[in-house]
Each structure stands twice: as C-alpha cells, then as structure tokens.
Amino acid sequence: MTVKVLIPTPLQKFTYNQAKLECEGSNILELIDSLEAHCPGIKSSLCDEKGEPRRFLNFYVNSEDIRFLEGTKTELKDGDEVSIVPAVAGG
Predict the structure, then answer these.
(1) Which PANTHER family does the UniProt entry name for this protein (predicted)?
(2) pLDDT (tens digit, 9 = 90+) per residue, 4-13?
C-alpha cells in the first residue's frame, strides 16, 4: 500500500530536499515509522518522546485533520495523501 506524503520545507533536510515521498503504512503511526526507515532522523522532528506527533505539527489525511479522525491510529488506504503541516500562530 503506497501513501503519498507531503513534507514541509523545514523537514526536507531529512528527505534529501524532496517535497513529496511515497511510503507505506496502514495508519499514521506505521507511516511515521516508514518515513524514519527512508529518512533517518525525521521521526524525532515529527514525534515527542512518547511517540505522539509534536504539538506544532498537524497531520492531514486527504485534507482531513487526524485530530478529528482517529489520531495516529487513523487508517490509511492505497493512494491516500498525508500532509504534514507546521502550525502557524500569529496575532
């Protein structure tokens, strides 16, 4: 099962400057592990010490925020697109 992952510019140093990758995983947790296998070091930028996504990063599956789905257990299907989006704050 192949999932397209859109990587934000600050994390492209781990992906050899690629903005899009194709990885495998049946859910977000497995996808993160697959990303780590292909791009060593990226997981520590994506996840905290407990293995949960960092607060300042948002994950979207086909434009749906995983916080409103099943979080890191959100299931993925072949052809899904996962976007990793840094949170933006301002005032």
Answers:
(1) SULFUR CARRIER PROTEIN CYSO, SULFUR CARRIER PROTEIN SLR0821-RELATED
(2) 999 999 999 9
The amino acid that residue 50 corresponds to is K
Read off the tokens for 54.
Answer: 């960092």
Residue 75, sorted as left (phi over 0), alpha (psi -120 to 50) or beta, turns out to be: beta
Gap between the Cα atoms of 91 and 81, Å rounded: 30
Q: How far apart are CA 63 and CA 82, in angstroms?
A: 8
pLDDT above 70 for 71: yes
d(CA 74, CA 79): 15
What are the pLDDT digits (tens) for 31-65? 999 999 999 999 999 999 998 999 999 999 999 99
Q: Which residue has the tokens 């789905």?
A: 69
In the numeric block, the tokens 């704050």 are attached to 89
